[in-house]
Amino acid sequence: MDIPTDCIYDVIVGGGSVSGLLAAREISSNGFKVLVLEDDHEIGTPEHCGGVVSQKGLEKLGIIPRIKTIETNITKAIIKSKNNSFQINSENQHIIVIDRRSFDKELAFQAQTSGAEINTKSSITSVNFVDNLFSIKLSSGKIFKSKFFVEARGVSHVLKKGFRDIIPSGQYEVYAHWIQKDTIEVEFDTELYPGFFAWIIPTGDGKGKIGVAGKNINPSFTLDKFLEKKGKPYSIIRKIYAPLWVRGYIKPFNLDRNVIIGDAAGQTKPTTAGGIYSGGMGGIFAGRSISKSLNNNNDCSYLKDYQNNWINTFGKEFDRMLLLRKILERLDNKSLDKIFSSIPAIFIEKISLSSDFDFHSVALKSFLNTRTSVNFLYALMGNEYRKIISDLSKI
Ligand SMILES: Cc1cc2nc3c(=O)[nH]c(=O)nc-3n(C[C@H](O)[C@H](O)[C@H](O)COP(=O)(O)OP(=O)(O)OC[C@H]3O[C@@H](n4cnc5c(N)ncnc54)[C@H](O)[C@@H]3O)c2cc1C
Questions:
Q1: Residue 147 contacts residue 27 (beta carbons within 8 Å)
Q2: What ligand 1 atom has the least distance to the C-alpha of 153?
Q3: Is the CB of 262 under 6 A from ligand 1?
Q4: Contacts with 127 (C-beta within 8 Å, 6 or more apart), sequence order
Q5: Domains in the chain, start-ordered, CATH in brackets?
Q6: What pLDDT, in 10s, does the model give residues 114-157?
Protein backbone atom coordinates (compact mmCIF):
# COMPACT_ATOMS: atom_id res chain seq x y z
CA MET A 1 0.00 0.00 0.00
CA ASP A 2 1.36 3.44 -0.94
CA ILE A 3 1.57 5.90 1.94
CA PRO A 4 0.86 9.57 1.06
CA THR A 5 4.05 11.63 1.39
CA ASP A 6 2.45 13.81 4.07
CA CYS A 7 2.32 10.65 6.25
CA ILE A 8 6.11 10.17 6.03
CA TYR A 9 8.19 11.84 8.75
CA ASP A 10 11.83 12.08 9.77
CA VAL A 11 10.85 11.06 13.28
CA ILE A 12 7.70 9.69 14.89
CA VAL A 13 7.45 9.92 18.68
CA GLY A 14 5.17 7.41 20.39
CA GLY A 15 3.80 9.04 23.57
CA GLY A 16 3.06 12.75 24.08
CA SER A 17 4.17 13.28 27.66
CA VAL A 18 7.23 15.01 29.11
CA SER A 19 10.02 12.94 27.51
CA GLY A 20 8.33 12.53 24.11
CA LEU A 21 7.39 16.19 23.81
CA LEU A 22 10.89 17.36 24.76
CA ALA A 23 12.45 15.02 22.20
CA ALA A 24 9.98 16.35 19.60
CA ARG A 25 10.85 19.96 20.52
CA GLU A 26 14.57 19.26 20.19
CA ILE A 27 14.36 17.45 16.84
CA SER A 28 11.89 19.81 15.17
CA SER A 29 13.86 22.86 16.29
CA ASN A 30 16.71 21.39 14.23
CA GLY A 31 14.49 21.58 11.16
CA PHE A 32 13.24 17.97 10.93
CA LYS A 33 9.70 16.75 10.32
CA VAL A 34 8.34 15.25 13.55
CA LEU A 35 5.00 13.70 14.50
CA VAL A 36 3.97 12.92 18.08
CA LEU A 37 1.26 10.27 18.48
CA GLU A 38 -0.54 10.26 21.82
CA ASP A 39 -3.04 7.63 22.91
CA ASP A 40 -5.06 9.84 25.25
CA HIS A 41 -7.63 12.32 24.01
CA GLU A 42 -5.85 15.28 25.62
CA ILE A 43 -2.18 16.11 26.29
CA GLY A 44 -1.48 16.08 30.06
CA THR A 45 -4.70 14.22 30.87
CA PRO A 46 -5.20 11.99 32.74
CA GLU A 47 -2.50 13.38 35.03
CA HIS A 48 -0.59 10.51 36.67
CA CYS A 49 2.07 12.45 38.55
CA GLY A 50 2.74 14.23 41.84
CA GLY A 51 4.33 17.09 39.92
CA VAL A 52 7.15 17.69 42.40
CA VAL A 53 10.17 19.13 40.64
CA SER A 54 13.01 21.59 41.26
CA GLN A 55 13.09 24.92 39.46
CA LYS A 56 16.73 24.16 38.63
CA GLY A 57 15.69 20.92 36.93
CA LEU A 58 13.04 22.72 34.89
CA GLU A 59 15.56 25.35 33.79
CA LYS A 60 17.81 22.57 32.52
CA LEU A 61 14.85 21.26 30.53
CA GLY A 62 14.53 24.76 29.04
CA ILE A 63 11.22 25.55 30.73
CA ILE A 64 10.12 28.49 32.81
CA PRO A 65 6.62 27.40 33.83
CA ARG A 66 3.76 29.87 33.65
CA ILE A 67 2.44 31.08 36.99
CA LYS A 68 -0.77 29.10 36.55
CA THR A 69 1.23 25.88 36.03
CA ILE A 70 2.90 26.25 39.45
CA GLU A 71 0.50 25.02 42.09
CA THR A 72 2.60 25.74 45.15
CA ASN A 73 6.15 26.23 46.53
CA ILE A 74 7.50 23.65 48.94
CA THR A 75 9.53 24.92 51.89
CA LYS A 76 9.58 21.86 54.11
CA ALA A 77 9.31 18.09 54.10
CA ILE A 78 8.19 16.01 57.06
CA ILE A 79 9.59 12.49 56.92
CA LYS A 80 7.90 9.96 59.16
CA SER A 81 8.58 6.43 60.28
CA LYS A 82 5.92 4.58 62.27
CA ASN A 83 6.74 6.27 65.59
CA ASN A 84 9.22 9.02 64.75
CA SER A 85 9.64 11.90 62.38
CA PHE A 86 11.95 14.71 61.38
CA GLN A 87 11.58 17.82 59.29
CA ILE A 88 13.81 19.08 56.49
CA ASN A 89 13.79 22.70 55.53
CA SER A 90 13.84 22.72 51.72
CA GLU A 91 13.62 26.48 51.11
CA ASN A 92 17.06 26.56 49.45
CA GLN A 93 16.17 23.90 46.92
CA HIS A 94 13.35 25.87 45.23
CA ILE A 95 11.03 22.90 44.90
CA ILE A 96 7.66 23.47 43.30
CA VAL A 97 4.56 21.42 42.57
CA ILE A 98 3.41 21.75 38.98
CA ASP A 99 0.08 20.94 37.39
CA ARG A 100 1.06 18.32 34.80
CA ARG A 101 -2.13 18.93 32.82
CA SER A 102 -1.01 22.47 32.18
CA PHE A 103 2.77 21.74 32.12
CA ASP A 104 2.51 19.07 29.42
CA LYS A 105 0.45 21.46 27.29
CA GLU A 106 3.23 24.05 27.65
CA LEU A 107 5.68 21.44 26.38
CA ALA A 108 3.31 20.56 23.54
CA PHE A 109 3.12 24.24 22.60
CA GLN A 110 6.93 24.52 22.63
CA ALA A 111 7.20 21.42 20.42
CA GLN A 112 4.54 22.69 18.04
CA THR A 113 6.06 26.16 17.72
CA SER A 114 9.38 24.46 16.95
CA GLY A 115 7.65 22.71 14.04
CA ALA A 116 6.40 19.38 15.42
CA GLU A 117 2.89 18.04 14.77
CA ILE A 118 0.98 16.44 17.63
CA ASN A 119 -1.99 14.09 17.28
CA THR A 120 -4.06 12.96 20.26
CA LYS A 121 -6.39 9.95 20.38
CA SER A 122 -3.82 8.14 18.26
CA SER A 123 -3.14 4.78 19.82
CA ILE A 124 -0.14 2.99 18.31
CA THR A 125 -0.82 -0.71 17.89
CA SER A 126 2.34 -1.79 16.04
CA VAL A 127 5.80 -0.54 15.11
CA ASN A 128 7.64 -2.37 12.32
CA PHE A 129 10.79 -1.59 10.39
CA VAL A 130 10.20 -2.32 6.71
CA ASP A 131 12.20 -1.17 3.64
CA ASN A 132 14.38 1.16 5.70
CA LEU A 133 11.42 3.00 7.25
CA PHE A 134 9.36 2.53 10.43
CA SER A 135 5.77 1.69 9.75
CA ILE A 136 3.60 2.88 12.65
CA LYS A 137 0.05 1.56 12.71
CA LEU A 138 -2.72 3.12 14.79
CA SER A 139 -5.81 1.42 16.20
CA SER A 140 -7.81 3.34 13.58
CA GLY A 141 -5.87 1.44 10.91
CA LYS A 142 -4.03 4.57 9.76
CA ILE A 143 -0.32 4.07 8.96
CA PHE A 144 2.51 6.61 9.29
CA LYS A 145 6.13 6.11 8.25
CA SER A 146 9.38 7.56 9.58
CA LYS A 147 13.16 7.20 9.47
CA PHE A 148 13.43 7.12 13.28
CA PHE A 149 10.99 6.00 15.96
CA VAL A 150 11.16 7.40 19.50
CA GLU A 151 9.64 5.08 22.08
CA ALA A 152 8.20 7.32 24.84
CA ARG A 153 5.17 5.29 25.89
CA GLY A 154 6.14 5.14 29.57
CA VAL A 155 6.12 2.20 31.98
CA SER A 156 3.74 0.32 29.65
CA HIS A 157 6.77 -0.24 27.40
CA VAL A 158 8.82 -1.60 30.33
CA LEU A 159 6.02 -4.07 31.05
CA LYS A 160 5.81 -4.99 27.37
CA LYS A 161 9.49 -5.85 27.43
CA GLY A 162 8.77 -8.45 30.09
CA PHE A 163 10.03 -6.63 33.21
CA ARG A 164 7.61 -7.53 35.97
CA ASP A 165 9.26 -5.91 39.00
CA ILE A 166 7.01 -2.86 39.11
CA ILE A 167 5.37 -1.28 42.14
CA PRO A 168 1.63 -0.54 42.16
CA SER A 169 0.70 2.98 43.20
CA GLY A 170 -2.45 5.01 43.70
CA GLN A 171 -2.88 8.74 44.01
CA TYR A 172 -6.02 10.67 44.95
CA GLU A 173 -6.66 14.37 44.61
CA VAL A 174 -8.10 15.31 47.96
CA TYR A 175 -9.53 18.36 49.71
CA ALA A 176 -8.74 18.20 53.44
CA HIS A 177 -7.96 20.73 56.17
CA TRP A 178 -4.81 18.80 57.17
CA ILE A 179 -2.98 19.59 53.91
CA GLN A 180 -0.59 22.55 54.20
CA LYS A 181 0.35 24.34 51.03
CA ASP A 182 4.14 24.44 51.67
CA THR A 183 4.72 21.00 53.22
CA ILE A 184 5.33 17.61 51.66
CA GLU A 185 4.81 14.62 53.94
CA VAL A 186 6.44 11.25 53.36
CA GLU A 187 5.52 8.30 55.56
CA PHE A 188 7.44 5.04 55.73
CA ASP A 189 5.74 1.93 57.06
CA THR A 190 7.37 -1.25 55.83
CA GLU A 191 4.22 -3.30 56.47
CA LEU A 192 1.75 -0.97 54.76
CA TYR A 193 4.01 0.30 51.95
CA PRO A 194 6.76 -2.33 51.49
CA GLY A 195 9.67 -0.90 49.49
CA PHE A 196 8.09 2.52 49.12
CA PHE A 197 6.07 5.07 51.10
CA ALA A 198 2.89 7.14 51.38
CA TRP A 199 2.95 10.82 50.41
CA ILE A 200 1.06 14.07 50.72
CA ILE A 201 1.90 16.59 48.01
CA PRO A 202 0.05 19.87 48.48
CA THR A 203 -1.35 21.84 45.58
CA GLY A 204 -2.57 24.62 47.88
CA ASP A 205 -3.89 25.09 51.41
CA GLY A 206 -6.42 22.35 52.10
CA LYS A 207 -5.85 20.48 48.82
CA GLY A 208 -3.31 18.10 47.37
CA LYS A 209 -2.35 14.70 46.02
CA ILE A 210 -2.31 11.82 48.47
CA GLY A 211 -0.53 8.70 47.30
CA VAL A 212 0.72 5.29 48.30
CA ALA A 213 2.93 2.73 46.62
CA GLY A 214 4.38 -0.56 47.76
CA LYS A 215 5.25 -4.02 46.56
CA ASN A 216 2.15 -6.15 46.03
CA ILE A 217 -0.17 -3.71 47.81
CA ASN A 218 -3.76 -2.97 46.86
CA PRO A 219 -3.40 0.82 46.38
CA SER A 220 -7.11 1.56 46.69
CA PHE A 221 -7.48 -0.31 49.99
CA THR A 222 -4.19 1.14 51.33
CA LEU A 223 -5.12 4.71 50.39
CA ASP A 224 -8.50 4.39 52.06
CA LYS A 225 -6.75 3.26 55.26
CA PHE A 226 -4.27 6.15 55.02
CA LEU A 227 -7.08 8.68 54.63
CA GLU A 228 -9.03 7.13 57.48
CA LYS A 229 -5.99 7.61 59.72
CA LYS A 230 -5.56 11.26 58.66
CA GLY A 231 -9.13 11.95 59.69
CA LYS A 232 -12.39 13.27 58.30
CA PRO A 233 -13.66 15.49 56.83
CA TYR A 234 -12.04 15.06 53.44
CA SER A 235 -13.27 14.78 49.85
CA ILE A 236 -11.74 12.69 47.11
CA ILE A 237 -12.17 14.47 43.81
CA ARG A 238 -10.06 12.23 41.57
CA LYS A 239 -8.43 8.78 41.69
CA ILE A 240 -5.64 7.33 39.56
CA TYR A 241 -3.68 4.09 39.72
CA ALA A 242 -0.37 3.60 37.92
CA PRO A 243 2.64 1.30 38.10
CA LEU A 244 6.05 2.68 39.17
CA TRP A 245 9.47 1.54 37.99
CA VAL A 246 12.31 1.85 40.53
CA ARG A 247 14.90 -0.67 39.28
CA GLY A 248 17.07 1.78 37.38
CA TYR A 249 17.73 2.63 33.75
CA ILE A 250 17.39 -0.10 31.13
CA LYS A 251 20.16 -0.30 28.56
CA PRO A 252 20.55 -0.13 25.62
CA PHE A 253 18.68 3.13 25.02
CA ASN A 254 18.39 2.42 21.31
CA LEU A 255 18.10 -0.49 18.93
CA ASP A 256 19.40 1.06 15.74
CA ARG A 257 16.92 3.81 14.84
CA ASN A 258 14.41 2.81 17.51
CA VAL A 259 15.28 5.14 20.42
CA ILE A 260 13.83 4.63 23.91
CA ILE A 261 13.42 7.53 26.35
CA GLY A 262 11.91 8.52 29.72
CA ASP A 263 9.99 6.01 31.82
CA ALA A 264 10.10 3.57 28.88
CA ALA A 265 13.91 3.43 29.36
CA GLY A 266 13.61 3.20 33.16
CA GLN A 267 14.87 6.78 33.62
CA THR A 268 12.97 7.25 36.91
CA LYS A 269 14.77 7.71 40.23
CA PRO A 270 15.08 4.38 42.07
CA THR A 271 14.30 6.15 45.37
CA THR A 272 11.16 8.18 44.59
CA ALA A 273 10.22 7.11 41.01
CA GLY A 274 10.44 10.80 40.03
CA GLY A 275 11.12 11.15 36.32
CA ILE A 276 10.17 14.62 35.10
CA TYR A 277 13.77 15.88 35.13
CA SER A 278 15.75 12.68 34.44
CA GLY A 279 13.31 11.40 31.78
CA GLY A 280 12.94 14.89 30.33
CA MET A 281 16.71 15.10 29.93
CA GLY A 282 16.50 11.69 28.24
CA GLY A 283 14.20 13.27 25.66
CA ILE A 284 16.54 16.20 25.13
CA PHE A 285 19.74 14.11 24.85
CA ALA A 286 17.99 11.68 22.49
CA GLY A 287 16.60 14.54 20.39
CA ARG A 288 20.06 16.04 19.94
CA SER A 289 21.61 12.72 18.91
CA ILE A 290 18.81 11.88 16.49
CA SER A 291 19.20 15.32 14.89
CA LYS A 292 22.92 14.64 14.40
CA SER A 293 22.15 11.25 12.85
CA LEU A 294 19.62 12.82 10.50
CA ASN A 295 22.16 15.47 9.53
CA ASN A 296 24.63 12.68 8.72
CA ASN A 297 22.68 10.40 6.44
CA ASN A 298 20.89 8.61 9.34
CA ASP A 299 24.21 7.40 10.77
CA CYS A 300 23.19 5.58 13.97
CA SER A 301 26.63 5.84 15.55
CA TYR A 302 25.65 9.34 16.76
CA LEU A 303 22.96 7.74 18.94
CA LYS A 304 25.69 6.48 21.27
CA ASP A 305 26.05 10.09 22.46
CA TYR A 306 22.50 9.96 23.84
CA GLN A 307 23.20 6.98 26.10
CA ASN A 308 26.64 8.28 27.09
CA ASN A 309 25.38 11.78 27.93
CA TRP A 310 22.48 10.46 29.98
CA ILE A 311 24.66 7.99 31.89
CA ASN A 312 27.36 10.61 32.46
CA THR A 313 24.73 12.90 33.97
CA PHE A 314 22.60 10.42 35.96
CA GLY A 315 24.38 7.04 35.98
CA LYS A 316 26.32 7.37 39.25
CA GLU A 317 23.36 8.93 41.01
CA PHE A 318 21.06 6.10 39.89
CA ASP A 319 23.62 3.45 40.88
CA ARG A 320 23.89 4.99 44.36
CA MET A 321 20.10 5.17 44.69
CA LEU A 322 19.83 1.49 43.75
CA LEU A 323 22.28 0.51 46.49
CA LEU A 324 20.44 2.68 49.01
CA ARG A 325 17.18 1.06 47.92
CA LYS A 326 18.75 -2.33 48.75
CA ILE A 327 19.30 -1.15 52.32
CA LEU A 328 15.86 0.43 52.66
CA GLU A 329 14.19 -2.74 51.41
CA ARG A 330 15.86 -4.71 54.20
CA LEU A 331 14.63 -2.46 57.02
CA ASP A 332 11.55 -3.12 59.13
CA ASN A 333 9.52 -0.56 61.08
CA LYS A 334 11.52 -1.08 64.27
CA SER A 335 14.81 -0.46 62.46
CA LEU A 336 13.46 2.64 60.72
CA ASP A 337 12.16 4.02 64.02
CA LYS A 338 15.55 3.47 65.58
CA ILE A 339 17.39 5.19 62.73
CA PHE A 340 14.94 8.10 62.67
CA SER A 341 15.32 8.64 66.42
CA SER A 342 19.10 8.68 66.17
CA ILE A 343 19.57 11.39 63.54
CA PRO A 344 21.37 14.37 65.09
CA ALA A 345 19.69 17.78 64.66
CA ILE A 346 22.92 19.24 63.27
CA PHE A 347 22.85 16.65 60.51
CA ILE A 348 19.28 17.55 59.52
CA GLU A 349 20.28 21.20 59.41
CA LYS A 350 23.21 20.35 57.13
CA ILE A 351 20.96 18.37 54.79
CA SER A 352 18.46 21.26 54.75
CA LEU A 353 21.14 23.68 53.66
CA SER A 354 23.17 21.64 51.24
CA SER A 355 21.24 18.83 49.64
CA ASP A 356 20.18 18.83 45.98
CA PHE A 357 16.65 17.63 45.21
CA ASP A 358 17.63 16.16 41.84
CA PHE A 359 20.74 14.39 43.14
CA HIS A 360 19.74 13.43 46.67
CA SER A 361 21.67 10.16 47.02
CA VAL A 362 24.57 11.89 48.78
CA ALA A 363 22.21 13.21 51.46
CA LEU A 364 20.63 9.76 51.83
CA LYS A 365 24.02 8.11 52.03
CA SER A 366 25.26 10.40 54.79
CA PHE A 367 21.92 9.89 56.54
CA LEU A 368 22.59 6.14 56.67
CA ASN A 369 26.18 6.83 57.63
CA THR A 370 25.52 8.58 60.95
CA ARG A 371 27.27 6.69 63.72
CA THR A 372 24.16 5.09 65.29
CA SER A 373 22.83 4.10 61.87
CA VAL A 374 26.11 2.45 60.90
CA ASN A 375 26.31 0.44 64.14
CA PHE A 376 22.69 -0.50 63.95
CA LEU A 377 22.63 -1.39 60.24
CA TYR A 378 25.82 -3.38 60.59
CA ALA A 379 24.28 -5.37 63.44
CA LEU A 380 21.18 -5.92 61.29
CA MET A 381 22.70 -6.69 57.92
CA GLY A 382 26.25 -7.76 58.78
CA ASN A 383 28.69 -8.00 55.91
CA GLU A 384 26.04 -7.18 53.33
CA TYR A 385 25.83 -3.66 54.76
CA ARG A 386 29.64 -3.37 54.77
CA LYS A 387 29.69 -4.46 51.12
CA ILE A 388 26.99 -1.96 50.08
CA ILE A 389 28.75 0.90 51.86
CA SER A 390 32.03 -0.12 50.24
CA ASP A 391 30.35 -0.29 46.79
CA LEU A 392 28.79 3.12 47.45
CA SER A 393 32.16 4.66 48.21
CA LYS A 394 33.46 3.44 44.83
CA ILE A 395 30.71 5.22 42.85
C1 LIG B 1 1.59 8.43 41.02
C2 LIG B 1 2.81 9.03 40.39
C3 LIG B 1 3.38 10.17 40.96
C4 LIG B 1 4.53 10.72 40.37
N5 LIG B 1 5.08 11.84 40.92
C6 LIG B 1 6.17 12.40 40.37
C7 LIG B 1 6.73 13.60 40.90
O8 LIG B 1 6.21 14.16 41.88
N9 LIG B 1 7.84 14.12 40.31
C10 LIG B 1 8.44 13.52 39.23
O11 LIG B 1 9.47 14.03 38.74
N12 LIG B 1 7.92 12.40 38.69
C13 LIG B 1 6.81 11.84 39.22
N14 LIG B 1 6.26 10.71 38.66
C15 LIG B 1 6.90 10.14 37.47
C16 LIG B 1 6.55 10.96 36.24
O17 LIG B 1 5.15 11.11 36.13
C18 LIG B 1 7.10 10.25 34.99
O19 LIG B 1 8.46 9.95 35.21
C20 LIG B 1 6.98 11.10 33.74
O21 LIG B 1 5.65 11.44 33.46
C22 LIG B 1 7.55 10.27 32.60
O23 LIG B 1 7.28 10.84 31.39
P24 LIG B 1 7.36 9.95 30.07
O25 LIG B 1 7.14 10.91 28.95
O26 LIG B 1 8.60 9.14 30.04
O27 LIG B 1 6.17 8.88 30.17
P28 LIG B 1 4.66 9.03 30.60
O29 LIG B 1 4.40 10.29 31.33
O30 LIG B 1 4.27 7.75 31.24
O31 LIG B 1 3.92 9.15 29.20
C32 LIG B 1 3.75 8.10 28.31
C33 LIG B 1 2.73 8.56 27.29
O34 LIG B 1 2.59 7.56 26.28
C35 LIG B 1 1.22 7.45 25.96
N36 LIG B 1 0.99 6.13 25.39
C37 LIG B 1 1.00 4.93 26.02
N38 LIG B 1 0.71 3.95 25.15
C39 LIG B 1 0.53 4.53 23.94
C40 LIG B 1 0.19 4.05 22.65
N41 LIG B 1 -0.01 2.74 22.43
N42 LIG B 1 0.10 4.94 21.63
C43 LIG B 1 0.31 6.25 21.82
N44 LIG B 1 0.61 6.77 23.03
C45 LIG B 1 0.72 5.93 24.08
C46 LIG B 1 0.51 7.65 27.29
O47 LIG B 1 -0.85 8.00 27.11
C48 LIG B 1 1.34 8.76 27.91
O49 LIG B 1 0.86 10.03 27.59
C50 LIG B 1 5.12 10.13 39.22
C51 LIG B 1 4.53 8.99 38.64
C52 LIG B 1 3.39 8.45 39.22
C53 LIG B 1 2.75 7.23 38.59
A1: no
A2: 34
A3: yes
A4: 14, 134, 135, 136, 137, 149, 151, 258
A5: 5-71+99-162+247-316 (3.50.50.60), 167-244 (3.30.9.10), 318-394 (no CATH)
A6: 999 999 999 999 999 999 999 999 999 999 999 999 999 999 99
